[in-house]
Amino acid sequence: MLQWLKHYRRDQLPGDLSAGLVVAMMMIPQGMAYALVAGLSPVVGIYASILPPIVYALFGSSMTQSVGPMAIISLMTAAVIGPLAAPGSALAGVLAAQLALVSGAVLLLCGLLRMGFLANFFSRPVMSGFTVGSALVIAYDQIHTLLGAELPHVHVPSAALGLGSLLLLVLARQYLAGLLKRCGLSPAASDVCAKLAPMLVVLGGIALMACTGLAGMGVRTTGAVPAGLPHLNLASSSAHWRVLLQPGLLIGFIVFLMSMSAAQSLALKRNEKLVSNHELIGLGAANVASALSGGFPVTGSLSRSAVNFAAGANTPLASLITAALLACALIAPTGWLALLPLPTLAATIIVAVLGMLELGILRTAWQYDRGDALAWGATCLGVLVMGVEAGVVIGVALSMGTLIWRASRPHIAVLGRIAGSEHFRNIERYPAETQRELLALRIDANLFFGNMESVTQRIECELATHQSARQLLLVMSAVSSIDTTALMALAELNQSLKRRGIGLHLAEVKGPVMDRLRNSTLLQQLNGKLFLSTANAWDQLHNIKDVA
Fold first, then answer.
1. In which domain, by residue range, is 70 found?
2. Domain membership flag for residue 528
3. Domain STAS, which positions (predicted)?
């Protein structure tokens, strides 16, 4: 807690100040936009951007992560509270805060129980498919706001403003950084300035609403934004706690995954060490803080954290400065925010989420592992067809299913000796020598209840293929554990081979595995020998004709 503050250096302050200012300018339109995605009043997005990053700075382990509203979490929030309360209503705000509280409590509990390893059970392709599907859902939901009406009917002034804003944002995303570089600005500064284009477009939209008659033409705006800091929020709906429990658990899981993805990418650039359990506690505390300040579920944002990093952030002080500036924006008169046109805000949402459509992972998965590519497609389709919560469940099921499927079918190689050496390789890949009466198999996986049937079937298949073999050598160099089911299966295999006059030998058994085998009867009943190396076994078994 606050370890970074104990070692803070004065030379880090300029970078933290500049990053805090830049992210604050980015957070005003982004926070309000994501609150709309969640079905809440726009000011709630700013509320959720003040206290959570302050609390995360106390407990989190990332030095540059920006915690606050995020598009996918906002969509999940809307999916949960939408059927329970009207968008923008007081009840919707209460339920969103309750959802943040449930998610925060789940994350805190997982952190205290040291369950940070859970982040490893959602594969990158599945996570990418979930992100892409969610981005498409968010973009589609914003089209009616962008055009000012439901398709096919269009409100022309709103559509002109929305499409114009969209065009400016797309052009800025594609060309602004390059243009600034050609004008002499440094690459880093150019990229940061290009990221501030949404704020400039929002200010332009506000100026148009103030100086023209667009408001009289029916262009909708955010409306009055309450001035002042958020109050302590203890409101709750006792009738909805049970309904929010399961969605809160799912949202907490996705909050952790999204945040770890963002934090890890930045930590690698700075050679920093992330502590997953501290991240759980930091994110849990941030969500509890969001609930108590009238916000909704928050997480670390990859795009916003990248801007924070590029703008010079060195420590969490940058996030504290951002929070302070946002608080000042609420303390100051907020009348100008009331003129923010909703079509412009919809355009910022669409451009932001379409930036999440990175298809590189799908391309890589398709070329490398078609199973991962199919999991990507199934998760994305699940989000589009069945909804975000179903997409999460499908993603988790596919990740775990893929893990179990691969673990249950371990690779087993028939080994032969490379001529003139003590190296043994797969005979399907190398021109290796074999022995007529010796079958050497290398098992490239841990042995457990889920794969022993497959392993024994493969062994029997190889024995049927090599009918002249009187000695079976299992090379255990890749086996780090053997559970009770696998131990019993090996004992049964040993007895079966003994009845058939075939010796069972083990080589290169790892120390931890050997320690556990000594506590069993397998070694005493083994119908063969233990060997330190495959080479020793190969030489000694060469002349053995019958089982002793």
1. 13-404
2. yes
3. 428-548
